[in-house]
Specification:
By secondary structure, the chain is α+β, with helices and mostly antiparallel strands. The chain has four helices and seven strands. It is globular, with a radius of gyration of 16 Å. 31% of the residues are buried. The protein binds coenzyme A.
């Protein structure tokens, strides 16, 4: 099925956060009650896919983060500088409204997050995610993310490996 024509934008006060209804109540509650405060304090950035002017079909959050070098697979870690930590961008949350699931929107939001992280002038080695369960981890593995050996629900994708074809198709 081809995706509906969503617009991607930074979250704005005019967007209808209250109507967002994914199958994860914590992710709905975060958008409803917490995210604007986090954005105001600069501890996260939030981007939304809009189905019309104000209707949020999906959202994700991004913030700076780091990974312990020792937590990466040894074959990857040995190619990086010997600093204790590696700079990354964390996609803290990703969620699609139930009405828009299975239409390619989750993949498009992920591609947009990767593109945004890769385009930043501030260097980051990888986009990292904390999958909330095995199903979410499978979604990220499907998109070529690599699990940390000792923490399979934390996954990363090196930004230098991105192909131009990964660019968000919206
Ligand atoms: C996970 C989630 C974001 C996926 O969004 P979606 O819009 O339904 O997914 P898409 O239609 O974009 O799927 C894109 C691709 O991922 C695949 N996919 C989707 N869910 C998958 C899963 N759990 N495991 C493996 N592959 C999966 C699809 O088959 C599709 O593959 P294709 O591009 O090869 O055809 C959505 O189901 C969701 O909001 N879940 C609840 C919150 C959540 O789990 N967030 C994840 C981070 S904690």
């Amino acid at each position: 099925m081809s995706p509906a024509p969503f617009q991607l934008a930074p979250l704005d006060a005019a967007h209808d956060r209250a109507a967002f209804n994914s199958d994860s109540e914590p992710l709905n509650r975060y958008l409803r009650e917490q995210v604007t405060q986090d954005v105001r304090r600069r501890v996260t950035a939030c981007f939304v896919a809009l189905a019309d002017e104000n209707r949020i079909a999906g959202y994700y959050t991004l913030a700076s983060a780091s990974l312990m070098l020792a937590d990466l697979p040894a074959s990857i870690g040995k190619k990086l500088p010997r600093y204790p930590t590696v700079p990354t961008v964390r996609m803290g949350r990703l969620s699609v409204d139930q009405a828009f699931k299975g239409q390619g929107l989750g993949g498009a939001l992920l591609a947009d997050a990767l593109d945004r992280a890769a385009r930043s002038e501030i260097a980051a080695y990888a986009l990292i995610v904390d999958a909330k369960d095995d199903t979410a981890a499978a979604f990220y593995r499907h998109h070529d993310f690599i699990a940390l050996p000792e923490s399979p629900h934390t996954l990363f994708l090196p930004l230098a490996t991105l192909q131009p074809s990964r660019k968000a198709p919206l």
